[in-house]
Records
---
Amino acid sequence: MRRESTRKPKQEMPTKTDNAEKSAADQAALRKELLRSMLLQRRFEERAAEAYALGKIGGFCHLYIGQEAISAGTMSVLRPDDYVVTSYRDHGQAIARGMSPRSVMAELFGRVDGCSGGKGGSMHLFDKKVGFLGGHGIVGGHIPLAAGVGWAIKYRKGDQVCVCFFGEAAVNIGAFHEALNMAALWNLPAIFVIENNRYGMGTAISRSTANEDVKTRAAAYRMIGESIDAQDVFAVRDAMGRAVELARKEGKPTLLEMRTYRFMGHSMSDAASGTYRSREELEESMKRDPIVILHDIMRANNELSDGEFAKLDEEQKAICQDAWDFAEASPEPPLDHLYTDVLVDTTS
Amino acid sequence: MALITYRDALTQALREELTRDESVFLMGEEVAQYNGAYKVSKGLLDEFGPMRIVDTPITELGFAGIGVGSAMVGLRPIIEFMTWNFALLALDQVVNAAAKMLYMSGGQFSMPMVFRGPNGSALQLSAQHSQAWESWLAHIPGLKVITPATPADAKGLLKSAIRDDNPVVFLEGEMLYNTKGEVPEGEHVVPIGKADLKREGGDCTIVAHGKMVLVALQVADALAKENIAVDIVDLRTIRPMDVEAIATSVQKTNRAVVLEEGWEMCGVGAQVVDFIQRECFDDLDAPVVRVHQADTPMPYAKNLEKAAKPDAAKAIAAIKKVMYLG
Ligand SMILES: Cc1ncc(C[n+]2csc(CCOP(=O)(O)OP(=O)(O)O)c2C)c(N)n1
Ligand SMILES: [Mg+2]
């Protein structure tokens, strides 16, 4: 995280969804909680990158660094019985949703105590307890799943919602359109979140997408579409709060475009800048670090001293160290696990 | 027992399971108001209403994914494909999502769902509408693949498929819907993974599944007149395959012909032959012969179509070959 932000703090006024949290103390506590969530995600992934470099994590590993306000803001307006489904860039969301950093790190390490028993890895984090329905590896393939969860909620006359995250490149996949059409046609309580970090691997959105204003895709499905400055966690929280309310009360889906930037390469095997985006562009974008932006607001409000910030940060680092230690101590899955969970055993 | 069609047997199974379990629903193109492209869901909309019998847009990938998502949170979807040719557009959901969800979630998310619809060629529908998909689907760990040949098996196996907590691919014979057979009323459940000896005879084994079982029965009748008696092993389920039933028969007859609707390359028959050569090598009196579709897309012209399809005459020739009867 870099402290170069020149952006003026702007979110002192409670947003619409914050009306319930009346007192200034509540507001400050909420900001601190959002800051904590983002810091935990950031520190966790910094350690994941380190572990990757040491060969403790293998395969594909896609970091979320720079995009944490989306998960922190979103999860802050969800209920425990809501659902989340996402792509392979899933560590931050998993942790923000309340999955244990230990179980996530152990999964990255390919250990038996990982959330998916070491069989899923970085791209396939799952936790039924917190309604986290996976990390999925086929671009856009999981978008219809969110409509399906919405269908099940409606079928049972429930009032939960399902939030679905995917990158901006996924809006060109058929599954996106098929899912949005049915979600709108049938009024399903699903919220479709485009995390527009401007690149799909090395392809800038301008080279992949005829109409870069991707929120307008919603109009084709009679759906509300909105663009959000997603480096601002309160802007995320506000838009998501309204979308959740619409889904919960009226069973209507929303398409939200979260404008963000990934500060790292596409995956651990990709440099942060180079052939497809310049060092200058990266540095410019990194000035809008969501953690710094929120921290600046809190400093301007005199609600978090430097000492308190350092303490909060140390706490998150300690959680990540504990996760690392736990993952390292966890055994590899026993070989007989190779053949378990292929099918539910129906012989008994 | 009543003499009913394969179609009506499937409808019975659907009705009984929809009645038994509120979390079961049927979703697909034209399943509700139109009563099903092949009328398998006839009358069900009136009985169960539009949340249980659901018409979709033409969006195979999308509604297969709706099925997967709803199964993740505990519903038991039956996803109907108008035919399996169109299911190709949904294979990402079948193969990458449904088949792998339990495994990649470390056992957390089971997929209690059925993907069903007509499979194989009908009459003169030509290349894009005449394909048998079982070898593709049976390749995938995490799926069960069922190919019922008779009305009784269609009913009993569909009931088992709906009750199974795994993703089940249920391939109905497009040409079988009007065939008739005795079907037990009410609770009739056929276990998944068990073959059935549809005919007993000691001279040669025919291994078949789905529509080809009917061809095998014609073959058996014709050969009986020449005093040749065949065993017909109806696999019924392709995955998991009942290899014991194959071995038991081949160890008795010492000869085998494998009959299937699909193409030769990497076909179901290739798997059956592989099993026989490993487990019954010393029992064999002749190399196993396969009968299958010609290695071409399905042609339209009647004569070419006949030449392309496996049939009784081709199967009889194969049996005579493995019996060294010229
Ligand atoms: C259907 C499919 N095609 C290609 C890939 C390889 N791939 C993985 S991520 C990716 C880029 C996706 O970009 P975007 O949707 O913007 O998400 P981001 O990685 O930026 O979060 C590609 C091409 C894939 N996983 N799935
Ligand atoms: Mg992107």
Note: The pocket of magnesium ion (ligand 2) is lined by residues A 167-169, 197, 199-200 (CB under 6 Å).
---
Amino acid sequence: MALLEVRNLATHFFTREGTVRAVDGVSFALEPGKTLGIVGESGSGKSVTALSIMGLIPKPPAEIVSGDVLFEGRDLTKLSEKQLEDVRGREIAMIFQDPMTSLNPTLTIGTQITETIRRHYDVPKQQARKKAVELLEEVQIPRAADRLDDYPHRFSGGMRQRVMIAIALSCDPKLLIADEPTTALDVTVQAAVLDLLDDLRQAHEMAMILITHDMGVVAESADDIVVMYGGQIVEHASVNDLFDRPEHPYTEALLGALPQIEGEGIRTGRLTAIPGRPPDLKNPPPACRFAPRCPYANANDSCATVIPELREIRKDHWVRTAHPACERAGAREPEKVQA
Amino acid sequence: MSASPKPPLLEVSNLLKHFPVRSGILIERTVDHVKAVDDVSFEIAEGETLGLVGESGSGKSTTGYCVLQLLKPTSGSIRFQGEELTTLGREELRRMRREMQIVFQDPYASLDPRMTVGDIVAEPLVVHSIGSRRDRTLRVRELLDVVGFDPGFTNRYPHEFSGGQRQRIGIARALALSPKLVVCDEPVSALDVSIQAQILNLLKDLQQDFGLTYLFIAHDLAVVRSMSDRIAVMNKGKLIEIGPAEELYAAPREDYTKALLSAVPIPDPRAMKERKAARRKLRHALAEG
Ligand SMILES: Nc1ncnc2c1ncn2[C@@H]1O[C@H](COP(=O)(O)OP(=O)(O)OP(=O)(O)O)[C@@H](O)[C@H]1O
Ligand SMILES: Nc1ncnc2c1ncn2[C@@H]1O[C@H](COP(=O)(O)OP(=O)(O)OP(=O)(O)O)[C@@H](O)[C@H]1O
Ligand SMILES: [Mg+2]
Ligand SMILES: [Mg+2]
């Protein structure tokens, strides 16, 4: 059984200016111990998806208008706030982009870790403190025992993110949701944090949902990747198949738009920019949400009239478009996969 | 070192910028100095792009601001077209400023929200009393057209536009006085990948069409690589390595540069396996000294 199964999730924001269809029919499953990467540009619905799973969307204006979130078979959308509190932190933990806003600046980090532990486990303070030191050591904070009584502002950005990870791990969750955990960090610090997450995930046999807008970050960390566009999943595949044979015109364009770090003609070449801009989710395009920017959509096809379904174009590779790469005229042969 | 036949457009020598660190509750005293820029030298030839990379706080923006004399250097020399800028009087500096402009990172913060798009782009022309009202209106339309912004929207306000559109407004404004040198300080860091590509392509086209010279500052090493002829690496205020882009990326000399490059995640899962192993090794080696 999947650890987490999200089925047809739709979360909308009911605002004075109209209904924002922030997440609109999202489905995916995650096996224990695996990492799912969710990529997409700003506003595509990544964070709202994560917050919906955790039961943390702001109600109102937001509401889950349809769908189930099955965690070990239990539908989290049906739980009371009290029941959800037991799940959060203990079974599913979450870390956010900005560790400063999610750490309490007025409490020492020791207090913040022990409070999380004691919220879920009935252990004496001293034992919780001992566990806190172990956790800080595990996330490689030097002189952990001495730093327990420091306040968050005494830590650098990378160190604060390690503290957040320590708090997230404190109750040995089965699933960690990391929403842009390294976006605010320098690239060397990002690499260290991602390596740390790798090690911890293996040691704790923890599954992870890694949310990012960085294709490089998912390429290195994820087993499977979901690409979101305008509140929907447009492509879902294993990491290798997604990068070897992207099918959705948006995924292809996104990869083409990325500047390369090694290769020929980088300086003189142009990037393949995607014309236009992401859809307004109050008033999205009627059928395919990518159609107005899609190089393959044209006036006399179905893109503006028929809503494309997410379909399995080959084993374990799902795509939502009328124009997947493999069905286009002169489609490329499946590329040879190098060892 | 530079094989360029022309004399450099910009020569920066031994640039130093220290900020005082103040402390004390009733009586503030300067207790120390941050060496934000610490003995930095480089040149940029006309029509060339020098990329400036480094981690947060390494002194990239401070270097850029000193070049434009938006910050007064503590010491050192900045020569633009052979003329020393650090000793110029106000009026001469004003004249020189026409040739040097800046594009900022945050298109949200850098545009005055109470001014219309047209007024924002026209402002440098007004400040330098260039052309009649009518001339300026025409020039603004031309500039907006060049940067791919619909000139029909000149009477709208910046908040009505997306990040990418706002960055185009900022670029049009920077181009208003036909500058020779443009300092781009993280011009695409706030933008999504698909929009980022539009702006990078635009900057490349403008360089071609108008022979612009760029000092291109960014922390994204792939973005800098795609824009630059040569690249300089800063670390803790010092310029630790400089060279042609391909050479520097293919064979970095400094351990710090190696660590920086090895940390960049690239969109290739198979290559990432090796890169991850390599960067762990490098990090451990650096930690052990
Ligand atoms: N409080 C809110 N009221 C109205 N709309 C909202 C609210 N919060 C989010 N949205 C909308 O929901 C959509 C999805 O937002 P979400 O935060 O999930 O995007 P994201 O993919 O996480 O983007 P980013 O990369 O910028 O974090 C956006 O269009 C956003 O404008
Ligand atoms: N006005 C100021 N007063 C005091 N210190 C300053 C000031 N401006 C910058 N600094 C310090 O100078 C150093 C260099 O800052 P700078 O903004 O140039 O870095 P940067 O490389 O542009 O970083 P980032 O990538 O974060 O933009 C930092 O330590 C910063 O805190
Ligand atoms: Mg988000
Ligand atoms: Mg800066």
Note: Chain B touches chain A at residues 55-56, 162, 164, 192-198, 200-201, 204, 219-223, 225-229, 245, 249-250, 259-270, 272, 275-276, 279-280, 283 (CB under 8 Å).
